[in-house]
Amino acid sequence: MRRAPNLVGTKFERLTVIKQAESLYGRRSRWICKCRCGNVKTALGQSLKSGRVKSCGCLKAEKLKEYKN
Question: Over the stretch 34-49, which tens digit does the pLDDT of each residue have?
């Protein structure tokens, strides 16, 4: 099995990787990230690298707020 690359310290949009979390089913690497707004989120490495996950959810809330105004 391949080892996940170390993403600690890497920034993905609003998220900065803090440390590796326990893997799901022993296969997918998960990472604990701190968002720019201060919240903590756990995300799959694949989702971070692909750009699918960009924040803890605050980005979506901001865009929704802008849309309503």
Answer: 999 999 999 999 999 9
